[in-house]
Amino acid sequence: MLRFAPSPNGRLHLGHAYSALLNARVADRLGGRLLLRIEDIDLGRTRPDFVSGILADLAWLGLTFAPPLRRQSEHFSDYAAARDRLAERGLIYPCFCSRGQIAAQVAARAARGEEIRRDPDGAPLYPGPCRHLSAAEATARRLRGEPHTWRLDMPAALRTLTAPLSIRRFSPEDGAEEIVAADPARWGDAVIVRRDVPTSYHLAVVCDDAVQGITHVVRGQDLEAATDLHALLQHLLGRSSPAYHHHALIRSEDGEKLAKSKGSEALADLRARGVTPEAVRMMLGF
User: Is the pTM of this model over 0.90?
Assistant: First the structure.
């Protein structure tokens, strides 16, 4: 079972088309089914026309998906339940620090000459002051309605491991697998639940893959490092772990990654210019 999981915060471009087509090819080669998931937890950026545009673009490419369509915004209670399980075990903690406060803490440490470790995305690891709040103080602040995220207590999470954490990688050509070591510690106390919704991308995708019975994940190399964190969450929640393949990204002529935020030409624009689905497939090697 595979899934293609776009976010409806913009229009699909060639990078999305490549990932969707590769998922379909792998599903066919492995004799599996391909599901469609709409990852719309970012309620502030999600728009109905983006959702309808995704469906139109995928249909134009000739792709079909097995039912049912899953929309993350309809399953916040599932993610909240997973959050509560982690909280009950003391594996996550509420963090009341704003981004500005965290930046100031990091700057102060740098000024003292302390080493600033960074996560795979380049962001400084959380310095950790809220990890040391007493349960009474944290609860009181939550009851007062103070905005907060929930962070993974990485040291506590790692102590639950009884063996080294690993990830299954597979070949999209023949499905052959290999086992590689995972290193979730490099993410530090990552945000597992955002301020505005009862989840994050990391928590939602782990829950969704388990609920949907996903056995193979095909996605871009930009998410490869996050798989270490996902493997740890799968372990903590007792969820199954798919095999992963992270494909190369489609880039512009100047070598930049295609992105909605950068105004990369959308599939809808190609269609309006008279480009055919066959031409897109050929352009992408399908």
Answer: yes
Separation between Cα atoms, residue 82 and residue 103, nearest integer Å: 29
Looking at the domain covering 1-74+251-286, what would its CATH class be? Answer: alpha beta
Q: What is the per-residue pLDDT for 265?
A: 87
Q: Please say whether the beta carbons of 172 and 18 come within 8 A.
A: no
Q: Which helix (H) or strand (E) holds 217?
A: strand 216-220
**Residues in the chain with pLDDT values less than 70:** 253-263
C-alpha distances (whole Å) from 269 to each of 99, 166, 188 are 36, 42, 41
User: For residue 252, what are its two tokens?
Assistant: 């512009």
For the 76-248 domain, the top CATH level (class) is alpha beta
pLDDT at residue 256, rounded to an integer: 66
The structural domains of the chain, with segments of one domain joined by +, span: 1-74+251-286, 76-248
The per-type count for the chain, helices as H runs and strands as E runs, is 10, 10
pLDDT tens digits, 84-127: 999 999 999 999 999 999 999 999 999 999 999 999 999 999 99
Neighbours of 181 (CB within 10 A): 9
Q: Do domains 1-74+251-286 and 76-248 have the same CATH topology?
A: yes
The percent helix, strand, coil of the chain (3-state, each to 5) is 45, 20, 40
User: Distance between CA 220 and CA 193 in Å, rounded?
Assistant: 23
The DSSP annotation for 165-191 comes to: -EEEEE-TTT--EEEEE--GGGG-S-E
Interstrand relation of 243-247 and 216-220 (parallel, antiparallel or unpaired): parallel
